[in-house]
Amino acid sequence: VICDGAVTHEACVLLRGFAFRQKMLPNGSRQILAFHMAGDFVDLQSLYLVRMDHTLETLGAALVGFIPHAAIKQAIAGSTRLLAAFWRDTLIDAAIFREWVTNIGQRSAYSRLAHVICEVAWRLKARGLGAPDHFRFPVTQAHLADATGITTVHVNRVLNGLKKAGLVKYNGGEWRIPDLSALEAAAGFDPAYLHSETLTV
Amino acid sequence: VICDGAVTHEACVLLRGFAFRQKMLPNGSRQILAFHMAGDFVDLQSLYLVRMDHTLETLGAALVGFIPHAAIKQAIAGSTRLLAAFWRDTLIDAAIFREWVTNIGQRSAYSRLAHVICEVAWRLKARGLGAPDHFRFPVTQAHLADATGITTVHVNRVLNGLKKAGLVKYNGGEWRIPDLSALEAAAGFDPAYLHSETLTV
DNA sequence: CGAACACTTGACTAGAGTCAATGTGTGTGG
DNA sequence: CCACACACATTGACTCTAGTCAAGTGTTCG
Fold this sequence. Notes:
Two copies of one chain form a homodimer.
Chain A (H helix, E strand, L loop, with lengths): L9 E15 L5 E8 L17 E14 H10 L1 H27 L2 H19 L6 E3 L4 H8 L3 H13 L4 E3 L2 E3 L3 H8 L14
Antiparallel strand pairs in A: 1-2, 1-3, 4-6, 5-6
Helix pairs in contact in A: 1-2, 3-5, 3-6, 4-5
Chain B binds a DNA duplex through α5.
């Protein structure tokens, strides 16, 4: 959707489907920085960070809307509440990055994977997408590998471990989580960082 | 300075010294999320993310100022430029978190350490603190370990490797970098993510 | 049908962790 | 002023998690 290094004059919104942000390294490896789902104001940061420092890509078919920066700035100028909501949105993004740093830096491969799945489950739930224990999330194991900083081979093994432990079931992009709290325990997941508490605007 | 879970009504600024953000995990391990230096508006995010999801701590002696949220909001309401500058600041923080995710997720211990040191060197330079090849940065090896997601023992070994390669010299919080571009090469460092280009307010 | 892609599995390797001991400098109190 | 404690740094020996290499097995799709 938007490439690393690009200079943009409009922000984009994910209307349907999924997307993710990634950085490519000179040595060919890739780090996935975040996953996005329908309803995410994916690129608000471009408002003041005009040159992209990473790439935005969709995860399968998706519908993306673009809004000129000028229009957003005008809307913000007219509404303190809107400003607060938008700024807050970018701050939550940052909070999620912080949690990812922690996830990748401190947890075992097993917990890391569980954590990423928990996050997606929670965020989808918060948005009312999919059932509480069953949702669509079309990632390949290679995506999960690059998101967690482990290799695809190891993702495969660890994911099988999670499956054998009865914590997740997945099949072609369809995920089932029979017992979310058990998965959270395995992940060391604490949803506080998602800041989904009532807005204090 | 501010503890995880706390609810604040003022933001803080680092006037002198250094600080860092960290998350503690239930198992006792700790992840350092960012380092801050004199002049950083350390806690602007608290403006709209009132409950802290991590802890802010100083690195040795430091001077910290507090500004009530109400005062900031008032100032922002009166100046579009100020709003842009502040928002931008939090967005750069997020950009740095993204780079850290990449750093920890994809690079070797050797490059990771080099990368953290490069970042500090660049940010100090941008702010005119210390000489280009010589600065003060009072971290212990344990701090570096928790920042990069490796153990203190391994930090010690890797840091010795960097020292033997002639890339860094350090002594009780004093750092010397004889050849920054060589260190950058070892780190795979690209300063683009710091977004220090001229402000486009 | 065959190419491309995702997933799986096994065997081997290596980078980093763990455990444990020792060194070194600094500050404090008797 | 020395003894001691403490925090930080260093080193060695061993272990283990995760990476690498390589060979399959589906499965989809033109």
